[in-house]
Write the structure tokens for this entry.
Amino acid sequence: MWDFSLRQQGAQKGFGKVSAPGQKIADSWLTHHYGPVPRFNPERWEFRVFGSTAIPGTVSFTFEKFQSLPGSRITADLHGVMEWTWPNNVWDGVMMSTVLDLVPPAAGVTHVMVWAEYGYSANLRLSDVLGDRAILATHNHGEPLSPEHGFPLRLVVPHLYGYKGPKWVRGIEYMTSDRRGFWEERGYHNIGEVRYEQRYSYQEEQGQGPPL
Ligand SMILES: Nc1nc2c(c(=O)[nH]1)N[C@H]1C(S)=C(S)[C@@H](COP(=O)(O)O)O[C@H]1N2
Ligand SMILES: [Mo]
């Protein structure tokens, strides 16, 4: 449940209230990830869309090309599964739906795997990344992401816990069935929806994830 004192503290800082069950407002923007922070190499960097694309083949974007895609902005809280919330982030970047329009998935696609540096991955239902639900963010509050927060590109999916949003994103795989990503294989909920507090894989009900 909400910790009222922390919520008040957040409100005094102008953060407003936490709109998610079981979360507390953090005092600062924590960093949370497994492994080292990768270095960005603009010559080598590419963003690949592959798997079950409508037109077979991989589509690759350089960073320059990616930056020239139509941009969008959303404002949203970032909810860590470990119960902290960093509220009211303004994210600029490219909507996942923009990428899906540019590189249409094949008819049978139901899920995507978002891939990051060093093999980190997160699986998402296609429905979780449509419309304005998911943004491939390059900026936070108008500033380029810092290296530890995912520069040059991270996925933000506000209605899902933070582990569903890879930092240092390098590609998207279109999938015709579900497959677990990095944390989803290691005890975290396959769907991870914040409003239902879907934190751990033991909470999964029949049909919410592939067998562990
Ligand atoms: N590549 C990568 N992205 C990642 C992670 C990770 O381990 N590796 N951790 C996730 C988790 S668990 C959270 S809560 C958020 C935290 O984002 P932040 O460090 O910017 O607060 O990043 C997510 N993105
Ligand atoms: Mo997290």
Summary: The chain has three helices and eleven strands.
